[in-house]
């Protein structure tokens, strides 16, 4: 690491400590690990957006915002008798990376990236001896697609895959779709226009919700077999809808049309028009 980079990191850490110190910022001084949770989440999502946008300046800024959150949590932890500081965090991570890369630091021979992944899971298990399940450590608070992806991937790394081939995943997806079609008659009626979708108003029948879950779970497995990240794929598809809907809105504004006044036929006509070359 460049000396200047070390100096910048140290200077930023000193800023954070000053904010937390007596006479520092009243807002920063009252923060806790728990109160900072939403800010860490928000900054993480902003970082992910910057990665998608592929802008160097924005990426640098958003990485800095996440780094600030890390330093703030370290500063809070350091204020307790049994706490730790950013140096302790760095040392734990350094030791962990060395232990999980024996093919780099200890002369262990590996046959390729796949074997590295298998070794990683084995070594990780030795570090987490208190864990009784391979699935422990996958945050259940992850978005559902990412959670399903992680749950499927962890055992697959060690040799167990519920849907071990693309054909198996395709068959499971077809079966789930057929089952969903068979129970779709239990779907709630469409709400009246202007009525918000709520669980109380439109709570689906349990078999219907289960069938949708099976379809989504199988779709995640299929995406994994195809080496596609389902979270990224769905986000990309959703963004295509967003872009197209923005075109619809712009054209409606240009025509002096209030979208609230459109009937279903006009909505459909305008939507189909956005797919034509402009």
Automatic annotation (TrEMBL):
Pfam families named among the record's database cross-references: MazG
GO molecular function: nucleoside triphosphate diphosphatase activity
Any one biological process term the GO annotation gives: UTP catabolic process
Keywords from the named record: Hydrolase
EC number(s) recorded for this UniProt protein: 3.6.1.9
Stretches assigned to the NTP pyrophosphohydrolase MazG-like domain: 31-105
Protein name, as recorded: Nucleoside triphosphate pyrophosphohydrolase
Species annotation: Candidatus Aeolococcus gillhamiae
């Amino acid at each position: 690491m460049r000396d200047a980079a070390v100096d910048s990191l140290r200077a930023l850490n000193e800023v954070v400590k000053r904010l937390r110190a007596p006479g520092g910022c009243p807002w920063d001084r009252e923060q806790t690990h728990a109160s900072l949770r939403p800010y860490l989440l928000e900054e993480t999502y902003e970082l992910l957006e910057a990665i998608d946008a592929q802008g160097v300046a924005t990426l640098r800024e958003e990485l800095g915002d996440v780094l600030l959150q890390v330093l703030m949590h370290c500063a809070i932890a350091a204020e307790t008798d049994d706490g730790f500081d950013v140096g302790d965090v760095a040392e734990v991570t350094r030791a962990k990376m060395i232990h999980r890369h024996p093919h780099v630091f200890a002369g262990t021979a590996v046959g390729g990236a796949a074997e590295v992944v298998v070794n990683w899971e084995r070594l990780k298990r030795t570090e987490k001896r208190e864990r009784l399940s391979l699935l422990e450590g996958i945050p259940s608070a992850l978005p559902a697609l990412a959670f399903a992806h992680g749950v499927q991937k962890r055992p697959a790394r060690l040799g167990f895959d519920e849907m071990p081939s693309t054909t198996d995943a395709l068959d499971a997806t077809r079966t789930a779709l057929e089952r969903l079609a068979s129970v779709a008659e239990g779907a709630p009626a469409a709400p009246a226009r202007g009525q918000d979708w709520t669980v109380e108003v439109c709570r689906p029948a349990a078999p219907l919700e289960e069938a949708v879950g099976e379809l989504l779970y199988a779709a995640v497995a299929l995406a994994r077999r195809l080496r596609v990240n389902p979270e990224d794929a769905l986000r990309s598809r959703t963004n295509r809808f967003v872009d197209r809907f923005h075109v619809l809105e712009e054209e409606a504004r240009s025509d002096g049309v209030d979208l609230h006044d459109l009937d279903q036929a006009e909505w459909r006509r305008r939507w189909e028009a956005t797919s034509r070359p402009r």
